[in-house]
Amino acid sequence: MAKVLYVHAKGGPPVGYALPRVGARSEAHLLALSELPAGRALEGHCASVVARGAAWEDDLVDVIASRAREVGADAVVTFSEYAVVAVAEASRRLGLRGAGPAAALARDKRLMRAAWERRGIPQPRFRPVATAQQLASATGEMQCPLLLKAAWSAGSTAHQIIATPADAPAAWARSYAVMTESARLGYAELHVPGAGEDFIVEEIVSGRAEEWFEQPGWGDYVSVEGVVVEGDFRPVCVSGRMPTVAPFTERAGITPAALGTEAQTRIVDLARQAVDALGLENCGTHTEIKLGDRGRMWVIETAARFGGAMTVPQIEEVFGLDLIAMFTEQLLGGSPDWPAGALTPADAKGAAGSLVVLAVDGSGEPWRHRHVWDSASVVRSAPLSTGSTLCVVGESSLPDGTPVPVYDPAAGANTMAGLCLLSADRPQTVVRDFTALVDALPDILPVHAAQEVRA
Fold it and tell me: What's the Cα-to-Cα distance from 382 to each of 20, 354, 364, 393, 436, rounded to whole Å?
């Protein structure tokens, strides 16, 4: 049987979901760069488990390549944003299939945006910044409001809105501090030294979800999920979103997006341009696109990996595609049956969505009181539509009894309490059920303290 080295790090689909699917197609060996989830019996799905210790000072690419040689790996795979570049480089050194030498273009937002600029692909106007002085200069050249974001971040961390040039110094200090804390928590680039010090600032473009969706409750951006096969982009489907929590923290993703055929075709075409411009070889892709008025669109970012949280399980439930197993087969030289074109709501069997639990209400206002996370209460008391089912993703949630963190706009998803997965009959039902659940959570979860919580 072919052998695969699975490199685990923070982010991506839960390892408890992905590893068994890699193991079903290969003899899997697990290299854990981040702490493995407690209570998960992963050994039964892989032939070996090695954790990178604090004493390992070797270059990460050397660590991955060395372990791959030890186990005789025929492929190296990761689904984490933070390990994509290192795995791509290790695969290249070993002569194995991977994202290729251009992987960093799908990770470093400065390189990504520059590649799109050369191709004339629509995107927000931007500037790379590496110091507070460069940020101050950029705010004088660009139109406020602006969004400052870390070039190597994920999960909407370190985002700061700059309403006027006078806000720039405080925004820089806050974003820099958040990236330092994210690195301490393991939510940071694992291969590139000093990545937490690289930023971009961009003009904020206005979305108009109501011009793209017939019913309310949808956010003004979508993601095109896909894969690159020997340099050829293969779109799989389009996932929608609920509105973000300020500044731009994602609350919920929904598969499929309830788009018309013409709108989806235009969105997928733009995603193809964005992916093609990066020159990737073999990898999953996740491309986010902002939807504006009069049919305007802007590419936000592309990743050389599948969508995070529960995007991949949602696709498997709705479209019956096991992307993890298919991609493993592709890396091993097989020819999985990727869709001929992006699947549509008409191809879907029901709908699925994932909700990030943050301590804010539907309008983004902080909860009045602190609460304690209790997954059983959420599942038992969630106000769902008839036929809908909800579960809590334990691997991506706090232990029961843990106080729900106060939402920090700069820290984004780092302040989440839990992750919920919902199955329903159609996309709009997911929107409706998640909207009701967000409103109900302060009444469902036990109160931790009576004092009010400041924004």
Answer: 30, 14, 19, 15, 8
